[in-house]
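Reviewer 2 asked us to include a model.

Predict the structure of this chain.
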Amino acid sequence: MEALLAHKDEINEQLARYGVKFGIYKEGSFNERLFPFDPHPRMIGAEEFRQLEQGLAQRVVALNNFLYDIYHEKKIIKDQVVPEEFVYRSPGYLAQCEGITPPHGCYSHISGIDLVLGKDGEWYVLEDNLRIPSGASYPLIARALCRRCSPATFQQHRVLDNRDYGKLLKHTMDHVNTGGINVIFTLGRYNAAYFEHAYLAEQAGAVLAESNDLFVENRRLYCRTSCGATQVGALYRRVSDEYLDPLFFEASSLIGIPNLMDAYMAGNVAIINAPGNGVADDKGIYYFVPRMISYYLGEEPILHNAPTYLPYFPEDFAYVMSHAHQLVIKDVAEAGGYGVIFGSNLTQEELEELKKAIKAAPRRFIAQEVVDFQDLPVSEGETTVERKADLRAFVLTAESPVVWPSGLTRFSRNPDSFVVNSSQGGGFKDTWILCH
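Predicted model (structure tokens):
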């Protein structure tokens, strides 16, 4: 391991040369910065990973069932397992998607599930990301560079190979392909995750295209390639739902593909992930995922949520009002580490203002107990320090869910912070799944 750690600067220099950067829009301007890599890997044993695999697959199957149900029969609402207010008031719910069934009935082809390992040894799910979960490319290229810099490290440690992500992605796209080529639809150079779009297109053998390269004719999607207009059978879009099609969603969108949804509804192209998935990864809906698992699968959840309260319910509201000083309050409309407030960091005056906001709009917030999750070693100068770290696991669904034996481990660079998001200045690590 020492041999690998000694190459930290060299690996980061190579990541920079490959353009492994992360872009952030803040206060109206675009800032691009390197995504710092720390060579200390997170290690997960084989038995622990098997349990994670089972729990993650179970969760993704239930969420897919939920999405189909919500856009069709709505049994889970009729049976009062999930209040209808949490569905129809979610900004991720798209009425335009009512009655649409994606190819093979699959909504979340690529799911990014965020977890932390508590100091009690239990994994807790913090978030489900079913729209455009980013991050698989970072541990993928970091592993390749680490192998190049220190091959002996990987001869000494038996680590499951993670180089099959491109094949998994291709298989996932091929499974739902309606006839034509696979395309990764990017916003272009100034998108925050452009490196990832380009890298995954290369790994999966897909065409990387921007909106100007794509057009719809006779309810079929085409891509302008060097061979002329070529039909697209599967579109891995890296564009938010509301901007996908200006004739169907946000009319002012200049980055979408006119009539894309028409081709999708005609069954002539698969969109990955399906439009409308946002209703299932809403922070308010997260509370109900354990109930979904019991409802749809008749099983006990294998993975636990962090203890969560919904101020929407009177009992939870009372608890949140009396314990706000020790809870984490999250605005359900925010993402990327924004809108996360630790009650313990607020003054009494700020706390009262927050309570007023919760009282005025209880559906807008969730509250969670602070999970004291484990720290991981991080190199800082010539020393090693401990920092909070989470894990984004990736689940790819074709015939059935497959958990990629790797993942993006993000860590906080601030010793006093629990927020690890890259958009908040965090760094990343590789995730090693040990063979035994």
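The chain is about 30% helix and 25% strand. The chain has a mean pLDDT of 92. We have added this to the supplementary material.
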